[in-house]
Amino acid sequence: MTNMHGILDRSNSLDVHRPPRRTVLRGLGTALALPWFESLMPRARAAATAARPPVRLGFVYVPNGVNMARWRPAAPGPLGDLPPTLEPLAAVKDDLLVLSGLAADKARPYGDGGGDHARAMAAFLTGTHPRKTDGSNILAGMSADQVAAERLAEFTQLPSLEIGCEAGGLTGVCDSGYACVYSSTLSWKSPTQPLPKETDPRLVFERLFGGADGRQAERRASRRSLIDFIRDDAGRVAARLGTADRRKLDEYFTAVREVEARLDRIERLPAATLPPGLSPPAVPEELEPRIRLLCDLLVLAFQTDRTRVCTFSLANEGSNMQYPQFGVNDGHHELSHHGGDPAKLAKIAQINAFHTAQFAYLIGKLAAVAEGEGRLLDNCLLAYGSGNSDGDRHNHDDLPILLAGRGGGTVRSGRHLELAGETPVTNLWLTMLGRAGVEVEAIGDSTGPLDDLA
What we know:
Elements: E1 24-27, E2 30-33, H1 43-51, E3 56-61, E4 77-78, E5 96-103, H2 116-124, H3 144-152, E6 161-164, E7 173-175, E8 178-179, H4 180-184, E9 187-190, E10 193-195, H5 201-209, H6 216-221, H7 226-229, H8 231-238, H9 243-268, H10 287-303, E11 309-313, H11 332-336, H12 342-367, E12 370-371, E13 374-375, E14 380-385, E15 401-404, E16 415-424, H13 425-435
Parallel strand pairs: 3-11, 3-14, 5-16, 6-11
Antiparallel strand pairs: 1-2, 4-16, 5-15, 7-8, 9-10, 12-13, 14-15
Helix pairs in contact: 3-13, 5-10, 9-10, 10-12
């Protein structure tokens, strides 16, 4: 059976876990969903939920490929000492799969000439070859995240969340005759409908927790925490909770307050002063704190079941962002055309390690949240990678791909898994969706689910 977007599905075999609706606390300009509380569920349903919480799906994108010599583990099998670029992930390596051999075939030219950056991002989650155009007649494919969002939307308030760290236009030409939308958009609701990402953490916060009554501005003007506005409602809920769930409620409120405080601090701080001769980066100053705010918001979105699907672009494909915070004052894209220059390769490795450190932070935050008998991370699958392998060659085979989380106990982590060369990366997306209860026959150029994750 084929749906309106050309995705073959097996709807009749879908067995999506249907947990009870989350408790929502309401106040001035806010609607705050709460985490899972066994105390609020009938005993039989609580046991079922604890046994099988929903699986959340995340897709984290980095641009321009990586320095592969510093990326790949020495051998397949259990992860021992990690290569330099993956060293920031050492503390979470038991929750990690390193996948080699995956390819984004539809990012290749197929007669269209230059534009590998635009094609890399547009084809990454869609598995389709984007139409080369600098006009409005854009055409790609429905992305894997949106296939999942379409099927899981009935269970959450937000079908999906699209966030990122670098703004990008939906018009204009950015890469060898390709419209900018291709290199700045990871998520596609349909072949002609890209979903722009939100780069402002404050707006992401309001999207997650702002109410529908239009009074968010009034609440913000009061300079009080949104927790203050749902305190009475929260008190009534807390009275019904057991000791463990009360502790979970306190930890959740603390996390929300911390995110609010950091947002307020960022908005009050003056703009950073860059060294002479440097142009401002394409994202607001203090990049790492902003990335980590977005990570924390993603965790809260999954923790409260606000959404089960998220895409997160750390930068646009072809990004020429500079990283003066650790001494890399050259543009990322310029460096990626390294020509074998050891100095450029070393700087690329620094950028790559910075990005994996942010992914490590996200994994650690998900692991710190208790859910049921385990951790929130155990009920997530988060892919990390790029549609380019080596930025100098612009090759789309042997992509740098990581997978974090246990997928509800369906993934055996802590390994380097070498797959047959030219395995479509869309096979991984197909597998991830299946672990979340979304059974479809194909995504883009996929040829079937991966058999080696369990």
